[in-house]
Specification:
The complex is a heterodimer of chains A (504) and B (480).
Chain A (H helix, E strand, L loop, with lengths): L5 H19 L4 H28 L5 E9 L4 E7 L1 H20 L8 H20 L3 H10 L1 H11 L4 H30 L4 H6 L4 H18 L8 H8 L2 H26 L1 H27 L4 H30 L2 H36 L10 H4 L1 H15 L5 H16 L1 H25 L7 H4 L6 H19 L2 H19 L5
Antiparallel strand pairs in A: 1-2
Chain B lengths: L3 H6 L1 H18 L7 H20 L6 E3 L4 E3 L1 H27 L5 H18 L4 H19 L6 H32 L4 H10 L3 H19 L7 H8 L2 H26 L4 H24 L4 H20 L4 H28 L15 H4 L1 H15 L5 H15 L3 H27 L15 H31 L3
Antiparallel strand pairs in B: 1-2
The chains are: A mainly alpha (504), B mainly alpha (480).
Chain lengths: 504, 480
């Protein structure tokens, strides 16, 4: 058991790193890069320490720090992690190293500010996954908008201002209702502590309103249909690193919020309205899949595919109510939640890898248009191989991480209602459709222009970054047991909690 | 009955009076080259006053001169913040004033008299001291707004400010006379006692309405906000900074003394009036601010919307509500000094830096100033992890706990609207290239200005950690 406050270190080390990197100044980009890499690697090392320490006894919330923050309104600096948080923290730390590496020579303008924004995001995102006080959670949840606002707005594409304003105002719109929900909970229950709130017997009417306020925030963040429209714009305009963080981690903040708030605090309202979320998830899986099929822009295609994949996560989380409450099958319910979390982690790596690949191509041709590229297998053979691997993971091929989560969710959905499983499984066909169609157009065939045929080969740095992604994708795909073992007891706890009604 | 002990209670005010007179006299003997001495003496006087306020802080509420003057924790917090805001204004104004040949001794003595008025106002225990403090505070402020004699805009602003201000004090005075008529006393505590048992509740309510009008004017809440945008735009920038911070703090004292200490039994009446003004201010302030191209005018409408938040907190007449309002006003004052401070640091002769477009590409030329401005804007927008967020949370919480969920929902919808214009400033500074053919804007090489501004900006982040401590002071100030 670790005695020192490891979670605070994980949160604040990258933030302190951001200040150090800023002090390096615009004139010394090399120094800024190395400092950023150093801090992100240090954060990763800490996250591994956390993983190992948690692994020894994976049960309940550990490494808790509970200090008074604002006694006047009874809010505390309370952090702690369970298996799900640990998995997501390690994901965050890994992705940020790859983002810093991916931006190495690509970002030439104001390197220190870019790296500082990335490091701040690292710390704040870890903070979201640790927070056990609703107001503290909100603080991190909302604060991540600021660095992302700068990442898209300063280093983004031609319509970056539009995209970043839309992103900020859209997500702020959702989260501010969440804030009212938090304050209302405090008004009723007199506490911001997530454990106490999870135990507090809210009436059904209160739960309904709270559920609505949570869902606005998390549905926008996840994003779910029909409030997903900010995501394609943000992705298309964001720089590669911004896209990777957005897809790999920020979307998970939304689904993580679903676990911590609607599932734990308002289980009865969640059960009552689970069908809405399930229907919207299925719509995301099928309809957005079709939308992805026709995109002429690679980044938009992957953005839509992300929305479809996040549909699996919300499906897995809310199918629990049909399984646990109506059928009393807690084993299957656990499988659904576990599948959802595995899908979160897996999608983090797969979408991060795809956006990094697109970034590599963008750096050579300065466009995301699919029609510009072709015959990459000949032009950049190694790169083509990586592309195909990640594309396969995106379609959910067995042996890659994409398969595990989707399979678990579909299995639990089948138990709940075969029709739901049928629709969900249909997505495998569509995702294979849009992904393979994309691969056919850019990897196979011949280069459409002499420029596209003369693209320089992958550099060693790019190769290392993509190797990092590939290792994670394959590791989870081939041997997912450690990830599942990590969160087994946490998921069981959640399902037990969800099964008990709060209404007396 | 004169008690020499009373003079000790009033020591900070007496010291400041003497210092202001001294500065006025002392300045006459200086040549223009030696005027810096006035600046430093004035600053020193303010710092010593802060020391006297803190050092002589009584453990419990102390009154002087038969209840005319009250020295309690709320007054202490407000006085210290008023003094800090004024110190920031003095430091940030010096180079600006020199550039425009406005660096004169009157500026300092007028501002010091105005601060003295604010200090008396927040310590008032009697309707007479309330009125005296208010006038002593306002009259020098009118003169300060008109300080730039050559500017038409400045004179226009001063006339508007003066006429509307006089009208508001007239209304306030009328309200006071009605309350005197209904209760037969001017002492706020006796009014409180008499209000519960008065035979003429309608007369009292009638007077209350006029008091609320006066308070609304002082805050600049809708529908008594008309003077604010013109004064912000027309007044010399340092004075606009002063007007944006100090009157709001003084008004918290004014509102608490009149409404709670005096007319607490009528809380059910006035809280509804304040709630309506809060809703109107939030809507009008945020919507109109979007259309502004002048940065100072935009800040004026933003101020109006923030006063909506203060009223949101005040509409919950409990110690928590007042504490949240006090917290909000202090936080707001320091956000305004940061925002205006950047403008003052960037402005130079012939370049006021007061249009939003003047800030274009600031991050390319002066990343540090852009950073402070961005912090101020995000804080005003109420985005965590900045102090403005905490203030907003507490105000919203006060409203929800006070049973005004509807008002809280109006407030958050308005802050979504308001987010746009704060983000636009950040956008202009960070995402746009500097305008073609314009000289690089860099901050003045004024050492104290840069440091104070940096501390001010970073303080807005750091205070999120100290919010707990500060909020418990605020709560303690209202006896919770």
């Amino acid at each position: 058991m670790i005695q020192w406050p490891i979670l605070s270190w994980l949160i604040w080390l990258p933030c302190a790193g951001a200040i150090v990197v800023l002090l390096a100044g615009n004139a010394r980009p090399r120094l800024a890069r190395w400092l950023a890499l150093g801090f992100s690697v240090a954060t990763f090392a800490l996250s591994i320490v956390l993983l190992v320490a948690y692994w020894a006894a994976p049960a309940g919330f550990q490494f808790q720090e509970n200090l008074p923050w604002i006694p006047g309104i009874n809010t505390r600096y309370h952090v702690g992690v369970d298996g799900i948080s640990v998995a997501l923290i390690v994901l965050t730390a890994v992705i940020h190293i790859l983002v810093v590496g991916g931006a190495w020579q690509i970002i030439k303008d104001k390197v220190h500010q870019y790296m500082a924004a990335v490091l701040v995001l690292d710390g704040l995102l870890i903070g979201v996954f640790c927070a056990m006080d609703a107001l503290l959670f909100y603080l991190f949840f909302e604060a991540i908008l600021i660095p992302m606002f700068f990442l898209i707005g300063v280093w983004g594409g031609p319509r970056r201002v539009y995209a970043t304003m839309k992103f900020f105002i859209y997500t702020f719109f959702g989260s501010i209702f969440f804030l009212i929900g938090i304050l209302y909970m405090h008004h009723v229950a007199g506490t911001f502590d997530l454990h106490q709130l999870a135990e507090y017997p809210f009436t059904f009417k209160q739960q309904t309103w709270l559920f609505a306020s949570f869902c606005i925030a998390f549905a926008i963040k996840t994003p779910m249909v029909p409030v997903h429209t900010w995501l394609p714009d943000a992705h298309v305009e964001a720089p590669t690193g911004g896209s990777v963080i957005l897809a790999a981690i920020m979307l998970k903040v939304g689904t993580y919020g679903f676990i911590r708030f609607p599932l734990m605090i308002t289980p009865d309202a969640s059960q009552h309205f689970a069908w809405v979320i399930i229907v919207l998830s299925l719509v995301a899986i099928i309809y957005i899949g079709y939308v992805a099929l026709v995109q002429p822009d690679m980044k938009k295609l992957v953005a839509y595919s992300s929305i479809a994949h996040m549909g699996f996560v919300t499906l897995g989380l809310f199918i629990v109510f049909m399984l646990a409450r109506q059928l009393g099958d807690s084993a299957m319910a656990e499988l659904g939640v576990q599948g959802a979390v595995v899908q979160m982690v897996s999608h983090g790596f797969v979408s991060g890898a795809l956006f990094t690949c697109i970034g590599v191509m963008y750096d050579r041709m300065h466009t995301h248009e699919i029609s510009v590229f072709g015959g990459l297998a000949k032009v950049m053979p190694w790169f083509g191989a990586f592309w195909v691997l990640f594309a396969m993971a995106n379609t959910g091929l067995p042996g890659t991480s994409g398969f595990v989560g989707e399979f678990m969710v579909i299995m639990s959905a089948f138990k709940a209602n075969p029709w739901i499983a049928l629709f969900a499984a249909y997505s495998l066909i569509i995702s294979a459709g849009y992904t393979l169609y994309l691969v056919r157009r850019i990897i196979w065939g011949t280069a459409p222009t002499p420029e596209a045929a003369a693209m320089p080969r992958m550099s060693a740095r790019e190769g290392w970054v993509l190797t990092g992604f590939a290792v994670c994708v394959l590791a989870i795909g081939v041997y997912p047991w450690p990830l599942m073992h990590l969160m087994d007891s946490s998921v069981a706890q959640i399902v037990t909690h969800v099964m008990a009604s709060k209404l007396g | 009955m004169f008690n020499p002990q009373d003079l000790l209670t009033l020591l900070p005010e007496l010291f400041l009076t003497a210092a202001a007179c001294l500065v006025l006299l002392f300045d006459v003997f200086l040549t223009d080259d030696q005027r810096d001495a006035t600046h430093w003496v004035a600053l020193l006087a303010l710092v010593v006053t802060i020391y006297l306020v803190i050092q002589g802080q009584p453990a419990e509420t102390v009154t002087a001169f038969g209840g005319m003057f009250v020295r309690d924790h709320m007054a202490e917090i407000l006085k210290v913040t008023v003094l800090i805001a004024t110190i920031l204004m003095f430091v940030m104004a010096r180079a600006w004033l020199k550039d425009r040949k406005l660096f004169v001794g009157e500026f300092y003595s007028l501002a010091m008299f105005s601060v003295l008025g604010a200090m008396l106002l927040v310590s008032a225990g009697n309707l007479i001291t309330v009125y005296l403090g208010l006038e002593l505070f306002s009259l020098p402020a009118y003169a300060l707004v008109a300080m730039n004699r050559e500017s038409k805009l400045s004179s226009e602003a001063a006339i508007k400010f003066f006429v509307l201000g006089a009208l508001a004090s007239g209304l306030l005075l009328f309200g006071m006379s009605l309350i005197y008529g209904a209760t037969g006393t001017l002492d706020l505590h006796q009014i409180f006692a008499a209000a519960g048992t008065t035979q003429q509740p309608h007369l009292l309510q009638f007077g209350l309405v006029f008091l609320v009008v006066g308070i609304g004017f002082e805050f600049g809440a809708v529908p008594f906000h008309m003077w604010l945008p013109d004064v912000y735009e027309g007044a010399p920038t340092p004075i606009a900074m002063y007007i944006s911070a100090v009157p709001k703090l003084a008004a918290i004292g004014l509102a608490y003394r009149l409404l709670e200490v005096g007319l607490g039994p009528y809380a059910g009446d006035w809280r509804v009036m304040l709630a309506i003004m809060a809703a109107l201010s939030l809507v009008v302030g945020n919507v109109v601010a979007i259309a502004q191209t002048n940065f100072k005018r935009m800040l004026a409408y933003s101020t109006i919307s923030h006063m909506g938040f203060v009223f949101l907190a005040l509409s919950n007449p409990t110690p928590e509500g007042y504490a949240s309002a006090l917290f909000y006003a202090v936080c707001f004052a320091l956000m305004e000094t940061a925002a205006f401070g950047v403008i003052l640091a960037l402005a130079r002769k012939g370049f006021e830096c007061e249009m939003i477009s003047d800030l274009k590409g600031l991050n390319h030329q002066s990343p540090w100033m852009a950073g402070v401005m961005a912090i101020a804007m995000f804080s005003l927008a109420g985005i965590p992890p900045l102090w403005g967020f905490m203030a907003k949370v507490e105000a919203l919480k006060a409203a929800i706990d006070g049973g005004m969920l509807w008002l809280a929902i109006i407030a958050i919808i308005c802050s979504i609207i308001g987010l746009f214009y704060y983000l636009r400033i950040v956008w202009v500074m960070y995402f746009n290239a500097p305008a073609e053919g314009r000289e690089p804007v860099s901050p003045k090489p004024d050492f104290t200005l840069r440091w104070l501004l940096s501390i001010n900006g970073l303080g807005l982040i750091a205070m999120i950690g100290f919010s707990g401590l500060f909020y418990s002071w605020c709560l303690a100030a209202f006896g919770a």
